[in-house]
Every structure is written in C-alpha cells, then in structure tokens.
Amino acid sequence: MKRLINDPYDVVEEMLAGYVTAHKDHVVLDQASEAQGRVVVSKSAKQKDKVGVIIGGGSGHEPLFLGYVGKGFADAAVIGNINTSPSPDPCYASVRAVDTGKGCIYLYGNYAGDVMNFDMGAEKADEEDGIRVETVLITDDVISSENIEDRRGIAGDFFVFKVAGAKAEMGGDLDEVVAVAKKCNDVTRTMGVAMSSATLPSKGGPIFEMEDGDMEIGMGIHGEPGVRRGKIEPADKVIDQIMAPILADLPYTAGDEVYVLVNSLGATPLMDLHICFRRVAEILAEKGITIYKSLIGSYASSMDMAGMSVTLVKLDDEIKELLDYPCDTPYFKQF
Amino acid sequence: MSDYILNKDYFIAVIEDLIEMAEEKKEYFIQLDSAIGDGDHGMNLSIGFREVSKNLEEWKSEDINTIFKNAGTALLDKVGGAAGPLYGGFFMKFGLPVKGKDEVTFDEFIEMMESGVAIIEKRGKAVVGDATMVDTLRPAVDAMKKAYHDDGCSPKEAMKIAMEVGAQGSDSTVPLIAKKGRAMRLGERAIGHRDPGSASSAAMLEIFYKHMP
C-alpha cells in the first residue's frame, strides 16, 4: 500500500484535525456533541441571515466536500467514514450550526445511505427545532442508470453546490435556492474512466482488482463497476467514448454554451488532464458548442484512483451568473 | 413451551458474539462489497461494533431493551452509510416490544425480530428479491413464526429453521440483479455476487441460534 496514514480507524479524524488547522481562516470544526467532530463549518456561517447550504457525504473524495466550505459556497460539510454517508446526528448538528431562521438545504450525491442519514437529520431538525430543511440530490453520472432519479452524483456535485451557495449568498430564499440547485442538476452531466482502484486504508490494498494496463469506462467514484473494461486506449479515443453519452443525454444545439470540468480521480496528472481537455474542446467545437469556462484539476477524487471524468454544464444566463459569483473557500476561490 | 425463557445473559452473549463476528468477518464483507459496491461494509460494521464493545460492560445492568437501544444508537452514530440506519434501526427497535424486561418468552422474541426487521424494510424501502438484507431477514422471520406457531417446532428448532432459511435467502441474492443500494447501478453486472448485507444478516441469525438454550 502506498498511502501515508497511521491507524486506518483514525484516518477521518486525523484528516479533519489537519484540515481545520491548515484552513483555520476559513473553517472550524463544530464542537456541539451531536456533530461528533464530523461537521466542518464556515467561519462566514451565520454572519448574515441567509439560507444555510449544507453539503456532505463519505470521505475519500477530497477536496469534495470539505474543500468547498467557505463564504459564497457551502456553509457546512458533514463528513462520513470512507465511502460512507455521515450518520444522522452530524447531519442534524450541521443544520443547527448554520441556520439563521431562513431554513437550510442539503445537497449531496444520490446514494441510498446518504439519503437515509440526511433524511433522518432533516426530520430531527424539523421535530426538535422547527427548522425547515430541503434536499436536492445530485444525479450527474450519465452512465449509472437510464432513469435520471436513480443516477449517482459525482464530480457534477461541484457545480450544483456552487449555484446553491451563490443563490443563498445573494439573498435567495429557500425555495429559490432549491430551484436553482435542481435546475443546475438538470443540465449537468458527467462520465468517467478509471485505470486503477483506490487504496482502501482498512484493507491496505485496492478496493477491487484491476490488471495493470486496463481501464474501465463509466466506473463510479467509489469504484462501482462501470460499463466496459478493456485495455487502456489513447486519450482521444477514451474521451470520444466519454463525450458521446454525455452529449446524447441532453438536447445540444450549435450555439449552446457549456462550463467544462476535466476532473482527476486522484492519480491522473495535469498533463493527461490537459491532453484530455484538448480533445473535449475539439469535439465541442465540431458541434458548434462554445466553452464558456473550464476547470481542470482534482475537484472530486477517489483518493489515489487513477482516472478522470468530464463534466459539462449546459449554461443559461442565470446559471452562468451563479457560477461566476464570488466565493472564497480553501479549494475554490473566485473574486 | 410457555416456560421457555430467553434471559438477559442470552442477549448479552449474542451481542458479544456479534462484536467478534464483525472483526472475524471484516475481510470477507470487504471482499463481498468490493465486488459490487464500494468495499465499506466490512469496515463499517467493525467500526460500529468496536464502539458497542467499548461500552457494553457499562450497559449490562440495564434492561434488554435499553441494552439494544444503546447498541443501535452506537451503530447509527458511528457507522453511517446504509448499514448504520439499517443495523442501528434493527437494534433500536429490537427491544421495544419488551421494554423494561430482563427476560422474554419466545413469543416475545418473535415480536422483537419482527419489530427489528420491519424498520429495515421501512428504511431501506426494500422487499424480498431486491438483493439486500431483507432477502435474508424477511423469509427467516416468517419461517420462524410458521415453524413455532403452526408446525409445533420448539423455539430452538424454529430459530434453526430461521437461520437456514436466512442463509438460503442470502444465497438467493447471488443470481439476482440488485435493485437497491449501490449495486443497483450495476444492473446485470451484479449477477453472480452475494449481497454483503444479506451475508452479514445471515451471520447475525447464526449467532442468535448458536446461543439459544
């Protein structure tokens, strides 16, 4: 195993201890007992009356989720064990930590465990404190199911979180924040490829076996098997296979504008990402689709997995304005 | 038959054995979950039951319901994911029908099982055939009821039947297309793999049987 950790049972707590110390200008760890040390709160939270934006999910996807806690983005992130949803009490504690009387929104990728735990957190916030909490599930992974509501959330989380954070910062009410989050999710599509498994600290080895030199198209961010495994092909051929399902999943016409994210799952270098992005740009140019802006780097990882994903957000003026709105977090700043 | 009693020692022995099982089978559950999910099931049960283990000594003086409620709360808090609400829910509801008691009849034990399995079905929104824990637990509890109420089996025989039917239920997840949880995204690719939750549930039934007087 090529990981620098101590006891595998301590990885999440030790990561959080390092994170809140390193980024002490931006975040603190919620000290409420229900938070169980698993709620990262923005120092800007409760500074003014606004809808509370809460994101979260399992660990192992850094900088998702904790990296996006800060002014203009998320007010709090709830952190679970590796590849595992946080439990209900931290989800509940996060509401108390950020609510200013305008209600809160939970945003997370669509996974059965996350839904159960966050729903229980929302129920408790309603029952004990009368705080209204709404939920928007992110379902950007095109290949994970034919039914959109069954799809999982991966790197597209970033954009949905961003628009909700901006709308809340601009003073939108809870219904308006929910509406823009849903709208952004509706126009966000992602697909990925993996070339190795992440290393599971508890196992001291890969989550799943993958022969050196193989790739798997459509693999999930937790290593859920994808649609096709084969020998690694040249970048352009791989991108062609990723872009086709993404573009086929929404009605695109010449003149449309997109925001592009080429995301590393952890071990794929910036060199490769830019080579891949080059092909993405070529394909979009052929279709007459304009790239408004691009992000290239690791925004939603699977620890040390080799692989990448492409996300397209089909833009309109409202989504554009929200994505451009200023924010200041440890892993995404915009002024 | 009505003088058949399960006392607190039985339930504590079950919990102690579950703690051991979670450690012993950790690698096995990780392997099962790696094939179709994200590999977290083994580690999560281990994290949860280690927390139960830390506090069990302190809880032993409480009544059966409180012990299980505490254990369920520990699982819910420490585990997260799907296993937390499901196993945590099972234990939190398991003792509810016998609040305040230190020993239970077999009729009450059946009620406890029913109460626990019902919350798993409700929270997981799963039915038999979805390739989940419910494939093990629902047929097991139904078979136990029938064996005891209709077929004249002794409590221990009825629990043995539940254990066997549960194991078959777990086996039945192997050729299924998973319809819940992460494996559901795999569709036909999940065929040929055992659902990890169904396997840990079957192991739990074995423990409930093993310690029965």
TrEMBL record, chain A:
GO terms for biological process: glycerol catabolic process. Keywords: ATP-binding, Kinase, Nucleotide-binding, Transferase. It is an enzyme of class 2 (transferase). One of its GO terms (cellular component) is cytosol. It comes from the Bacteria. Its EC number is 2.7.1.121, 2.7.-.-. Gene3D superfamilies: Dihydroxyacetone kinase, domain 1, Dihydroxyacetone kinase, domain 2. GO terms for molecular function: ATP binding; glycerone kinase activity; phosphoenolpyruvate-glycerone phosphotransferase activity. It holds the Pfam family Dak1. Residues 7-332 form the DhaK domain. PANTHER family: TRIOKINASE/FMN CYCLASE (PTHR28629), TRIOKINASE_FMN CYCLASE (PTHR28629:SF4). This is Dihydroxyacetone kinase subunit DhaK. It comes from Acetobacterium wieringae. The gene is dhaK_4.
Automatic annotation (TrEMBL), chain B:
Its EC number is 2.7.1.121. Coiled coil: none annotated. Pathway: Polyol metabolism; glycerol degradation. Keywords: Glycerol metabolism, Kinase, Transferase. GO terms for cellular component: cytosol. Pfam families: Dak2 (PF02734). It catalyses: dihydroxyacetone + phosphoenolpyruvate = dihydroxyacetone phosphate + pyruvate. Residues 9-210 form the DhaL domain. InterPro entries: DhaK_L_YcgS, DhaL_dom, DhaL_dom_sf, Dihydroxyacetone_Kinase. GO terms for molecular function: glycerone kinase activity; phosphoenolpyruvate-glycerone phosphotransferase activity. It comes from the Bacteria. It is an enzyme of class 2 (transferase). One of its GO terms (biological process) is glycerol catabolic process. Homodimer. The dihydroxyacetone kinase complex is composed of a homodimer of DhaM, a homodimer of DhaK and the subunit DhaL. PANTHER family: TRIOKINASE/FMN CYCLASE, TRIOKINASE_FMN CYCLASE. ADP-binding subunit of the dihydroxyacetone kinase, which is responsible for the phosphoenolpyruvate (PEP)-dependent phosphorylation of dihydroxyacetone. DhaL-ADP is converted to DhaL-ATP via a phosphoryl group transfer from DhaM and transmits it to dihydroxyacetone binds to DhaK. This is phosphoenolpyruvate--glycerone phosphotransferase. It comes from Acetobacterium wieringae. The gene is dhaL_3.
